[in-house]
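User: Could you go from structure to sequence for me? I need the amino acid at each position, not a summary. Structure tokens:
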């Protein structure tokens, strides 16, 4: 509802509309509606890249969130690639010592827990396909 109103008033690619869409997709993740959230994040990503740029913090967040949905849906290899991309781009855009970059690197290597059963990079460190991602 808020997203629709902002889309109509501000436009689909306005930063506030994009942020609202990211929050909506995050709510879908919270409800474990991963396929719906994935679809929304996948729609949102090119709009963020176009409107904000590939290295904008919201764009990087959307990439990370999309990876989490992919992982939750069992697409671990694709999620691992997203995770590596987000860590690489965060280092370049935000710097190697930025808290968001460090959080991404740290999270990549954390094993799964009941509260963190999905997410890019949240549980990829515990998945066998993610072992190469932890090197370096």
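Assistant: Here is the amino acid at each position, in order:
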């Amino acid at each position: 509802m808020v997203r629709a109103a902002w889309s109509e008033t501000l436009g689909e690619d306005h930063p506030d509309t994009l942020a609202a869409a990211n929050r909506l997709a995050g709510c879908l993740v919270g409800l474990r509606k991963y396929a719906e959230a994935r679809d929304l994040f996948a729609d949102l990503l090119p709009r963020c890249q176009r409107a904000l740029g590939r290295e904008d913090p919201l764009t990087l967040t959307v990439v990370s969130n999309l990876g989490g949905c992919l992982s939750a849906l069992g697409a671990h290899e694709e999620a691992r690639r997203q995770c590596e991309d987000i860590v690489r781009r965060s280092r370049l855009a935000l710097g190697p010592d930025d808290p968001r970059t460090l959080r991404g690197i740290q999270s990549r290597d954390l094993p799964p827990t009941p509260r963190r059963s999905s997410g890019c990079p949240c549980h990829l460190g515990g998945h066998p396909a993610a072992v190469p991602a932890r090197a370096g």
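One structural detail worth keeping in mind: The CA atoms of residues 12 and 18 lie 7 Å apart.
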